[in-house]
Protein 1
Amino acid sequence: MSTERGSIQWNHFKHGLVKMGLDIKSKPKILELGSGMGECSLSSIEDGFDCYGLEVDSNVYVQSQLLFTKNNNHSHQKYIFLYDGDHMPFPTNFFDASISWYVIEHIEDIGAVLRELTRVLKSGGLVYFKWQDPKIYYEGHANIPWLPFMPKYVVKIWCDEFNVPQQKRDYILQFCYNNTIENVSAILQFLGWEILDSSPMPECVVPQHWQYETESEIRTLARSIKTKMENGEWKNYPNRQFPYLKARKI
């Protein structure tokens, strides 16, 4: 059997896609953008679906092979592809839907990826994406409060105040990008998509956070946030929202 996490992810997407109008009786082809260790794709395949996965990290791709083998599933070579982040190795109009679980924030050239996604999805095809929009004031990879759109010099000071290990700091600086609901929606609309639903604009919990510039100011702000959290003054901070976007190709 596939992992519990993969099952939770797949059941979430399956329920959402059905509500969006996907006909699951027609054996739809589904693309998981950023399939990681293959947990969600494997759960979908075990559920009887044709779910293909794209993964850019070769080490993680190998782990997905091991997961399929461990679960005595021999379809890895058919369904999971090591992807160069540029050209999707599928024919035009091949898929009925695409899903993605916290991967969009790791795509540097989101426009090129969405263009390719538009090519490989059929007319009427659906996308359901969840990811870490930078506006939610939360960094899930380090599990700390976050200020939207921080320059690198602010990120370094901020991570220092929250004792983020160097490996995670490097990961955030190198592999996390400011892809918002609004800019992804705008690109999809330009490419001929209809936006069906998206998460609302999150509450601004640190007003005018862009005014903090010196190291002293940034550290003072970080420490004040930590104090308020420790004292229970900010029960809803960091804002653990789960941003999403649902769209249909016209």
Protein 2
Amino acid sequence: MSVIRARPWVAACFLLPALLLLGALVVYPIGYSLYRSFFDAAGTGFVGLHNYGEIFTDDGILTAVKNNAIWVTVAPTVATVLGLIFAVLTERIRWGTAFKLIIFMPMAISMLAAGIIFRLVYEQNPDRGVANAVWVGVHDAFTDASAWPGARPRPDGELAGPSGGPFTTRSTVSATDPAHLPLVGVKPQDVADAAEAKAASPGTGDGVTGTVWLDFSRGGKGKPGVIDPGEKGLAGVEVEAVKDGRVVASAKTGEDGTYSLPPEARGAQLRLPAANFAAPYNGVDWLGPTLVTPAIIGSYIWMWAGFAMVLIAAGLAGVPRELLEAARVDGASEWQVFRKVTVPLLAPVLAVVLVTLMINVLKIFDLVFIIAPGATQENANVLALQLYLSSFGAGANQGVGSAIAVLLLLLVLPVMVFNVRRLRRETRR
């Protein structure tokens, strides 16, 4: 210390490289961004605070500000809470280390790679997107799928109705004449394993019978409205008999497409409900305008919950076990020990994690840029992405981009000041 006081130039020599780097990489960009924010797109005309006014009047930038507020509120909080839960639970399981490794592993993946992964996870097509594959699987486990999605009657045939159903016969049916209901619009591969259609016989006991089949023969050899050899029966189709707008009887077709209705169906019109032909459930539009921001936040939490868990677990290892045992001896439940002892002791660590993640999400760019499709990128927009689009996108205006950069700096500063003050308080202790 005496050498430094006697020769301050020695300290200056050691600090000079760091100061030069700090000035070149931090101070100069901040100063230039502040200066540039007062000029127009060309950088030659002084516009004063016009660029800052545009930030709070442009709809796209306001959406970015709103989404940043959602990010800062939700993502750090959820990631910290999950990290705390994982850290506490892994202390009590045998394979805790392996579990921590699995949870922390996403941190080894770059934002670019994570964005590509979750772009595939959120694909709308259940055959490609994992999220919709799971969602559709759960949905279909509790809801019956339609029998023949997309099937429809022939134009000007006996059946008529709006696209997608319901389809109703133009005339009433009788017991003596089987009511055959031809349909088209089914892919041949969908009926490859179906049974051959069979012409129903007249009903016994004054009942109404008929056949629902795919009225299509390969090579165009068949006749419309006639059950030709090789044509397939459509099984599982609901057939309703309707009189005066009321369903008086219903039945489902068998493997060969035949059905049988009781005598109450005589003199009724037959109706094939729309549920027979509804398009298959295709899952949730995760990257649509409504869910795109929560979906991207979910991918961020997947990455950073492991970071929170590791830091909190390190802090948990330093918690005196005597305090926890003393609380249990005094009759506290595990929940009370966790809430009134563990969490307060971990408060400094939780603050570090929360503040770090808040600063991190204010700069979020990669995930939003990669995951959000072009159609909904405006809905998922954040300030860092808007900075890039304003500065280098179509109609680039680096004056507005610099103003957004200054706004981001102003948003980060309070968090940084809080963090510095907290560190000083801990140092004094």
Protein 3
Amino acid sequence: MKKASRKTAASKSRAVEPPVTEEQAQLAVRTLLRWSGDDPDREGLRDTPARVVRAYRDWFSGYHIDPADYLRRTFEEVEGYDEMIVLRGIEFESHCEHHMAPIIGRAHVGYLPTNKVVGISKLARVVDGYCRRFQVQEKMTAQIARCIDEVLKPRGVGVVIDASHQCMTTRGVHKRGVSMVTSKMLGDFRDDARTRAEFLRFIEIDGST
């Protein structure tokens, strides 16, 4: 029981930790510069900690966004349109949560509407909301699909992501020209082979080209 109590106390302690200040973040960057073997006070690096913190604020803005909010405004006056809607080639930049290295690629998103559709820019914003966090590609693919499925409640959702991982191309095995493809199919996209094939044809990765 004492062991469990200590664990609970530790969890509570972590939960109330104050937020990291911008000054603390800049000091952390200075430490990494020194650890790398350079002098953070030399002219070329003097403003680097502030620049890095500003860049991080942009790259990881997804932590301050609920991507589902983008999908809450929908349109129902679509003359009964109920065929597949696909937004393909959504370019994105994310960062690997294992090495903090860039993940650069394209996302393809499709869904089968019921009685409402969403503005296509909102689908791109959902992708942005999840990619601007530390990620693994498999998780990001599932998050995008489930968000669309839970908010729009369509008959089906398909998400395919094709991306290059700099943690593999610039370090480790150093294999360039390699991309990773992941997919998440829900509803009719998962259960109906013809629907899935139509989606893959739309995004031109059905294997015939």
